[in-house]
Amino acid sequence: MSYSLVVYLVDQDQISPLINSKDSDLFQRLKEHVLDDLDEDEWEDEDFNLKAGLEHLVFGVPISEDDLHMAGYGLEKLCHFAGGEMLDTDRFDSIHYGFLENVKCVLPLVDRGAPFAITAWDDFPYVGYLTRDECRKLSAETEELDHPDQQILLAQNDFFKWVDAAADKNKDLIGFYY
After folding, report:
1. Most buried among 66, 86, 124, 173, by the most CB within 10 A?
2. How confident is the model over 33-61, as pLDDT tens digits?
3. What residues have CB less than 8 Å from 162, skipping those under 6 apart?
4. Per-residue buried b or exposed e for 4-18, using 16+ beta carbons within 10 Å of the residue's own CB
C-alpha cells in the first residue's frame, strides 16, 4: 500500500487561535466549510469521525482513543478553513515512507507532530511542519541538488519550491502523510 504527502502553505498564527477557542459560531462556519466537500452522512460517519476530531480541536471535547487520529484530519480541515493553500504535491502521491527518507529535508513535514498544543496520536495522518523561520533558513541555504534517482531529485526540487514559497510569503508549512 502506498500513501501521499499533502502540504499546506499556512499562517500558523491564523490557525492557533481556532484551537480550543470554544467558539460555537466558528464551529458552525467550519462545519459548513467541511460540508462543501462532504455530505451530512459523512460528517456523522462513526468509522471516519471527522466531527469528533473537529469538536476535540475547537472545543477540547474528550475524544476516544480510537478516534484520536481524527484530530489530524480535523487539523487539515482547519488549515484549509484558515486560508491555507494546498501546494502541488503530485510527486509525493502514491509513495512509501522510504521514498520520503531519501528526499532531502522533507521528514519534518511528516514525523514532527503538529505545531500546536494538541493531543498526539499514533495513526495516520502523520503530521509535521516547518516554521517560516525554518523555511527562510532552508531557502537561504539552498544548494545545487543532486541525486542519482530522477524521481527523488524532482521531489527535492518540489520541496525547495515549497520552502521558497513559504519564505517569500512569510508563511509556514504543515504536512499530512496518509
Report:
1. 173
2. 998 887 777 777 777 789 999 999 999 99
3. 7, 9, 87, 173
4. ebbbbbbbbebbeeb
